[in-house]
Design a protein that fits this description.
about 90% helix; 2 domains; Helix Hairpins; 6 helices; flat; mainly alpha; Four Helix Bundle (Hemerythrin (Met), subunit A)
Length: about 525
């Protein structure tokens, strides 16, 4: 098989493997057809011929069973045993009929000789079964001589022909199975030989195709590998043959384009490496200066953060003192409020005492009036006793006692009235003083509340100022941390610039290892 050297690898592989696949397809088709034919013949042996032979053997078994039961019926004399043998004979006859029906169905599509044998077997079976039934009826009726004559004289010729035809059918199925087996073996050998020949041809073609493809690919690939190795060594002035076709030709074209592009890039890198080295030195010097200034700023910020921390502690102490003063002022205001409440209760009590004194004065007035009326009544009683003479002497004595009692009551009422008046004056004076004390206490409570409010505002302002100072301190601390981090970053940038300068020098040395050719140089 000839494969064009300028064709692509895909085309070569397609032609080679297409041929192999075509041979494999033919081999698979032949193997499938042979397997199908063998399968059909095997199914004919297993599912048809063997089934027919098995049914025929079943007929022989039923014939043997019926003749055996007939002999038992002729020999036995017990009625129950005869009935049992008759039942077994009837079952054997039914089984034979069922088996014969199955065999007839299996021979429905058989050849003419098999169908002819089946017809002869059916005819002989009808005669044999009729003789068996006749002998059984004779035996059951007690005619053992007639039954024996039927068993030994009439049945044997029919039974022999009957068995011969069944055996002939079995032999016919066996012969056809043997012929089919020989045919299967022959077809299997033919398929094996043809498959081996096709497989050998496929192997030969595969080897030839592989050899041709490998030979057509090896040389261009070796050339491409040689150029790639020289490029890996730094030689970028290799001549590249771009006249080939296919994938290898495209690979060489790509290698040539890559080499040209690498020459351009390396030339540009050589020009830029010197500039990078100079710029990296300037960046390193600037970063060193920036690092020094950043460290100075970080030191000042650290001092500022310490001062802010001290100020925050002082404001926190002032805030705590203001909070304590606010608490004491609140406590004093509470005590003043409780004192005002007590004074108000005392004023109310003095008012109730003054009211009670006024009520007692009214009661004393009533008592004085009663004493005055009693005195008048006593005077009237004395006048009436004087008029009565001797009859009213005792009444006059009583009237005198009553007038004396009324006078003493009036005197006591006047003294109580004087005392109540004096008490009212004292109560009124006490009520005025208590009222003045309540007003003073109210002013004290108001002043205490104002002091408490002022101290509370002062404490809130101190807390607010402390919070603001804490915020400023935290901000300064964060700024200090950021400055420290910036200083670290500047140091890292300085180190990176130094490393960049070293790498630029190394890059210059590495790029100098490439050979770009005279034109590019």
């Amino acid at each position: 098989m000839s494969l064009p050297s300028t064709s692509s690898i895909a085309a070569r592989l397609a032609i080679g493997f297409g041929s192999l696949l075509a041979l494999m397809l033919v081999l698979s088709a032949m193997s499938g057809w042979s397997s199908y034919r063998v399968g059909v013949q095997v199914r004919q042996i297993v599912e048809v011929n063997n089934q027919r032979a098995a049914l025929a053997r079943g007929l022989l078994d039923q014939i043997n069973t019926m003749t055996t039961q007939l002999r038992s019926i002729i020999v036995l004399t017990d009625t129950r045993a005869l009935q049992a043998e008759a039942a077994l004979l009837a079952k054997a006859r039914a089984d034979y009929v069922a088996t014969a029906s199955a065999l007839e169905a299996a021979l429905a599509d058989a050849q003419s000789d098999e169908q002819a044998l089946a017809s002869e077997i059916a005819a002989l079976a009808a005669q044999g079964i009729e003789l068996v039934q006749r002998g059984a009826k004779q035996g059951l009726d007690g005619a053992n001589i007639d039954a024996t004559n039927t068993l030994t004289q009439l049945l044997p010729p029919v039974e022999g022909a009957w068995r011969a035809k069944v055996n002939q059918l079995i032999a016919l199925q066996t012969d056809r199975n043997a012929a089919l087996a020989q045919d299967v073996g022959r077809q299997t050998r033919q398929a094996t030989l043809v498959g081996a020949a096709l497989a050998l041809g496929a192997i030969v073609i595969g080897v030839l195709v592989a050899w041709r493809i490998a030979r057509g690919i090896q040389r261009p690939v070796e050339n491409a590998v040689r150029i790639a190795e020289r490029i890996a060594q730094g030689a970028l002035d290799n001549p590249v043959d771009r006249t080939g076709g296919g994938e290898i030709g495209r690979l060489l074209n790509a290698i040539g384009a890559m080499q040209a592009r690498l020459r351009e890039l390396v030339g540009e890198i050589q020009g830029a490496a010197g500039s990078i080295q100079t710029a990296s030195a300037e960046v390193a010097a600037g970063n060193a200066d920036l690092a020094q200034r950043t460290e100075q700023a970080a030191s000042r910020l650290q001092q500022t953060a310490g001062s802010m921390a001290q100020l925050s502690d002082k404001l926190r102490q002032d805030t705590d003192a203001a909070a304590e003063a606010n608490r004491l002022a609140g406590f004093a205001a509470g005590v003043a409020e409780r004192g005002g409440s007590v004074v108000a209760e005392v004023v109310a009590t003095m008012d109730r005492i003054s009211g009670s004194s006024q009520r007692m004065a009214d009661i004393v007035g009533v008592i004085d009036g009663i004493a005055f009326q009693t005195n008048i009544l006593a005077l009237n009683a004395a006048v009436e006793a004087a008029r009565a003479g001797q009859m009213g002497a005792g009444f006059a004595v009583v009237a005198g006692e009553v007038r004396s009692l009324a006078q003493r009551s009036a005197e006591a009422a006047r003294e109580i009235g004087l005392l109540i008046a004096a008490s009212q004056e004292h109560v009124a004076a006490g009520a005025r003083r208590v009222g003045d004390a309540g007003a003073a206490m109210a002013e004290i409570v108001t002043s205490a509340k104002q002091v408490c409010a002022i101290v509370g505002d002062l404490s809130a302002a101190s807390r607010e100022q402390s919070g603001r100072v804490d915020t400023i301190s935290a901000a300064v601390t964060q700024l200090d941390n950021a400055t420290q981090q910036n200083a670290a970053l500047v140091e890292e940038g300085t180190a990176a610039a130094e490393s960049l300068r070293d790498q630029a020098g190394r890059l210059t040395r590495l790029v100098a290892t490439f050979h770009l050719g005279a034109a590019v140089a």
